[in-house]
Design a protein that fits this description.
It is a single chain. By secondary structure, the protein is α/β, with parallel strands linked by helices. The protein has one domain: Response regulator (Rossmann fold, 3-Layer(aba) Sandwich), CATH 3.40.50. The chain contains five helices and five strands, in the order βαβαβαβαβα. It has a five-stranded parallel β-sheet. The longest helix has 15 residues. It is globular, with a radius of gyration of 13 Å.
Length: 127
């Protein structure tokens, strides 16, 4: 990634348009610069243009799962804090999530206030 990319606070990857819009709006109302993508491939394309400080990924996307996307993102932006969210992620253990670089896992439906707190904590740690 080049340094000419625009920085943003959050890259939100959610394939449900209504959920993604609601989450992005909530975070933006609380002062965060949020960029959204609705698939893994669109997130990777967006990473060519923006440099997020935190990524929030849905585990189930139409083209990649959250683990695959996390690995690809971390190849482009090493050490990027990643929050994974899913309604059904029983097959992944915490150790697996940590090994691939996922800092926080949240179950859906995501409590937006808790998500905001987690993002702010990660932003503070990465400053």
């Amino acid at each position: 990634m080049t340094t000419s990319n625009t920085q943003c606070d959050v890259l939100l990857v959610e394939d449900d348009l209504d959920v993604g819009t609601a989450m992005a709006s909530y975070l933006a109302r609380h002062g965060l610069d949020v960029r959204t993508a609705h698939s893994g491939s669109s997130a990777l394309y967006l990473l060519q243009k923006v440099r997020p400080r935190v990524a929030i990924l849905d585990f189930r996307l139409p083209d990649l799962d959250g683990v695959q996307l996390s690995q690809k993102i971390l190849q482009q932006v090493p050490n990027l804090p990643i929050i994974m969210m899913s309604g059904a992620i029983g097959e992944l253990e915490q150790a697996t999530l940590e090994r691939i670089g996922i800092k926080i896992f949240v179950n859906k439906p995501v409590p937006l206030r808790s998500l905001l707190r987690a993002i702010l904590l990660l932003l503070k740690r990465s400053s």
